Amino acid sequence: MIPQSLIDAMIDWRHLIHANPETAFEEVATAKLVASVLRENGLEVAEAIGKTGVVGTLRRGQGPSLGLRADMDALPLAEKNEFAHCSRTPGKMHGCGHDGHTTMLLGAAVALAQDKNWQGTLHFIFQPAEEFGGGARKMIEDGLFERFPCDKVFAMHNWPSAPLGQFLINHGPMMASSDNFEISIQGKGAHAAMPETGVDVLVCASQILLALQTIASRRLSPRETAVVSATQLHGGGDAYNVLPDNAFIRGTVRCFSKATQSRIQQLMIELAEGIARANGASATVTYDAAYAATVNAAAEADLAIAAARAVSGEAMVITNADPAMGSEDFSFFLERVPGAYIWMGTNEGQPVAPLHNPRYDFNDKALGVGASYWVELVRHITKA
Prior knowledge:
This protein is of the alpha/beta class.
């Protein structure tokens, strides 16, 4: 479906992007490349949306308005690969495949600019800062859907553990919400040999940390999937004989519904404040509901399934994929416009590095598959 000449160009684009990774809201060179290719192929181009985001638009007659999204940002991670296109920027790399995502959507835009088998309006959304910074939310705040109205929105992510060409999706939650919390405990410092003269915040913090583990296991219904993980516990300085007067716990919460998010926050506040009070201390909970869960709309998931089957065949499309506890800020788009998020396998049967690993690299053989999915999705929905 995608001509080899275009696939060859896509490989060159991806290698260039991979070699020059840019993290959140720094995607200047990547955005410039995207905008240049879009303009060369006759698309209307808008830049600096959500700071470094780009939107390319194709219009052909009457029909639905579709948003197709790819993320552009890299990770603050030092690459350990040694191939020719490895990162030239110390401490940064494309360890999640966003170089591939950008390239596949860019290739699809080029292909669809020459394709006559569709009608409507296509908005190719190249988003910054998916990993950190909430680039999707920034684009929305910058008027994305007012300037580029969409009836439906779609996104795709590579999945290195799945076979090359396999697609995975379901009709509900695909990725979890991502919340961050900090619990600050204030007590009374004392000499470690005379703990009775103070209020030991480390003992109190330890009790709170253990109690947090009962939220998912005892306070929520077993039918609700949730993870509450404390990842940091800090208190005191370098002295062996001083009980500190303050400590804090930090961590993350993952779940699949706003109701569960709210319930976990409420329980965390109750536990922290209650345990602190019982110890003669005080606790303050700061809770940041950073990313919502990524939840597919059923009708749009069916459209994505049909397109994936057209590319890879029915046997290669998993329609009841288990959701992942990782998060994705495409969720902000889905809160505004119905749509669907799909995973695409890239594994050729050999052991490969997982996402966010310093030895990860997107499989170039998946570029044509992903671009073909985008083309088929547009054709299937618009049916010129």
